[in-house]
Amino acid sequence: MLPKDPNHTVARDLIAFIDASPSPWHAVASAEACLREAGFTKLEETQRWALKAGGRHYVVRGGSSLIAFVVGTRPLAEAGFRIVGAHTDSPGLRLKPKAALGGDGLARVAVEVYGGPILASFADRDLGLAGRLVLRTASGPATRSVRFAQPLLRLPNLAIHMNREVNENGLKFNKQTELPLILGPLGEGADAEAGLRRLLAEAAQAEAADLMSWELVAHDTQAGSLWGVDEAFIASRQLDNLASCHAALSALASVEAPAASCLAALFDHEEVGSESAVGAGGSFVADVLARIGIGAGLDGEDRRRATAASFFVSADMAHAYQPNFPGAYEPGHKLLVNGGPVIKTNANQRYATGAESAARFIACCERAGVPFQQYSHRSDLGCGSTIGPIVAARLGMATVDVGSPMWAMHSARESAGADDPAHMIAALAAVYTD
């Protein structure tokens, strides 16, 4: 059994990773910092690659997706690949291209709902703004990361005196008319659009006239924390799915001279279907695998041999049992936080797990000395999906869907177990050395 971590060192490291990563672009920057510290070197898709056994590299696409890999020591056609996939994006609110709204003495920003967040959880929270700007420069458009870590935006609730049924009917927001976020007071005659552009440009140390476009996320500014008796739990934003990104990176960094070529693939756009150039439905992972194969001198026959010898782990989060809502769960599948990695199964292939791939992951958990759990969704509730079925279909690899148990998935502030990050890292490290 994996020894206890009384100081929750791994959980604290995860919290620091998430705190530094309020947007997919910041998450990739955080991942790059971790990888450089572990001796990985960056490759560019536009350049030729020279790969050798034991080489530790990573490549970024679109600023929000990253694939890191260690070239295996055994012949690739025989050992194949060991891949862990996760995603850098989280559900929430994103600024529209022309976001500024004026009137009634207040400047507000218009937002679009990204994915499937619990909208009510964003009300009355201190929201910051993070993402990337594209600026006009003498040498052409240039991208700059920006982050307003201090409380900048807010979605104030309507007082119960004006919404008497809120506790009976639930808090609901019209996505078009009731979600604009308050930015600040608007002086008489002031131009809200000009004020917003000036604010953003100043954050990038640029002129407002040079601001061409942006992708910006409204995020909870509260730092992550440990909570509960003996600090047994984690509270943070974006546990779904930065916890899996952190686990994949940590496991890959811990592996030295693996027999198989090992990859951690972190994709954007999972929450909106993955169909993009930087999503799991795009060509990114297939392109990287092909280039590793070229570096190993594989022909068409050996490429297919390598695929047949490979194993893909889709690492996302899982629904922990919340005892206040027992009717939401399948009776035999009540996941416990701090109970270890979860193997997720769905007969309709919303998860890609099969009996053989489940058994293979169970064996990895047993070898790593960590507990494991199994999950199936209630049959009368719609089941979410992951990148697992998408990647499995595109690559033709044996695949298992796994995750760490958590509460309040897609909330502005989620919760999980403080022991589970270490459990998942150990299990994924066993996958890489399988």
Outline of the structure:
The protein has 434 residues and is of the alpha+beta class. It has helices at 9-19, 24-37, 76-79, 166-169, 192-203, 239-254, 284-295, 300-308, 355-368, 388-395, 420-432; strands spanning 41-43, 56-61, 65-70, 81-87, 92-101, 106-114, 127-135, 142-153, 181-185, 211-220, 225-227, 233-236, 261-267, 311-319, 342-344, 373-375, 398-407, 414-417.
Description:
With 434 residues, this protein is α+β, with helices and mostly antiparallel strands. The chain has 2 domains: 9-90 and 237-432, Zn peptidases (Aminopeptidase, 3-Layer(aba) Sandwich), CATH 3.40.630.10; 92-220, Aminopeptidase i, Domain 2, CATH 2.30.250.10. Helices cover 27% and strands 28% of the residues. The chain has 11 helices and 18 strands. The strands form 2 sheets. Strands 1, 2, 3, 4, 11, 12, 13, 14, 15, 16, 17 and 18 form a 12-stranded mixed β-sheet that branches. α2 runs parallel beside α6 (239-254). The two termini are 18 Å apart. The model has no long low-confidence stretch (mean pLDDT 96).
